């Protein structure tokens, strides 16, 4: 049974995020373009994190990439490429920064947060190759985990697939939180789960998916819908940990990915939590998130990533 803290956030988050169905594609595009025009793409750490972490930013193609490193640390050679979610329309928020900071301090790692160009004014094409180049460089330099939540989980998986296609070094592991991996929304159960999800809206996701793809014809490409990639390509991916709750519109796509992983022989560990909402491992102060973190540390320890002591 979900915790009281989770149930409070279940009601609070949709209000805070102003979750609502699509009015019209034109008005949504105009709203997002206004919001993105005012978006501050610099990353500022709160005082508590500034005391513990150093922050630098580099430009990789059209993408600013922010790197967090523990003060006095960072010597492990480990890196985490963490790709933020937000439906491909929203930038990095506090939840992403807090989670990235936790990864950095726990594993004495460089955690890189790419602030990739957003849709509707950009598609996957403006950032994909740059992120694959970045991941290849990191994987050559030392141990690497590629991670992401929601739309960022899509990008993380697509990047790993493209690394495989290049014959480049693979990450040690993938870490995916409710990744949006099927932008065709082809799974029959999608509309049923949409009615159970208090946060995500199917009408918006269909439009965002088409904008990110650039056209209907590109929706099924592996760079856009990585769950639909060829089984041979999936089979070569590194060990992966995937979380999803059952009050999440993206659950059918996650289940599709799990089924295809089984067919491909790809070592994917799947944790499905009854009654939990979208990207629950990133929620603050939630017992279920603490449990997911313990599962994550156990999983990464099995890949040679033990906590920094």
Stretches where pLDDT is under 50 for at least 5 consecutive residues are none
Regarding quaternary structure, how should these chains be classified? single chain
Structural class: alpha/beta
How many extended strands? Answer: 8
Radius of gyration: 18 Å
CATH homologous superfamily title: Alpha/Beta hydrolase fold, catalytic domain
Q: Largest beta sheet, briefly? A: 8 strands, mixed
- Spatially, the strands of the biggest sheet line up as 1-2-4-3-5-6-7-8
User: According to CATH, what is the topology?
Assistant: Rossmann fold
Q: What helical percentage do the residues reach?
A: 40-55%
Q: Strand share of the residues?
A: 15-25%
The whole-number mean of residue pLDDT values reads: 95
The total of helices stands at 11
What is the CATH class? Alpha Beta
Distance between the termini: 34 Å
The CATH architecture can be given as: 3-Layer(aba) Sandwich
Query: What would the principal axes of the Cα set say about the shape?
Result: globular
Number of domains: 1
Describe the structure.
With 309 residues, this protein is of the alpha/beta class. The protein has a single domain (4-17, 35-301), classed as Alpha/Beta hydrolase fold, catalytic domain (Rossmann fold, 3-Layer(aba) Sandwich). It has 11 helices and 8 strands. The protein has helices at residues 4-16, 25-37, 47-50, 94-107, 128-141, 151-166, 190-196, 202-213, 231-235, 251-264, 287-301, and strands at 53-60, 63-70, 79-83, 110-114, 144-149, 173-177, 240-245, 268-273. Strands 1-2-4-3-5-6-7-8 form an 8-stranded mixed sheet, sandwiched between helices. The mean pLDDT is 95.
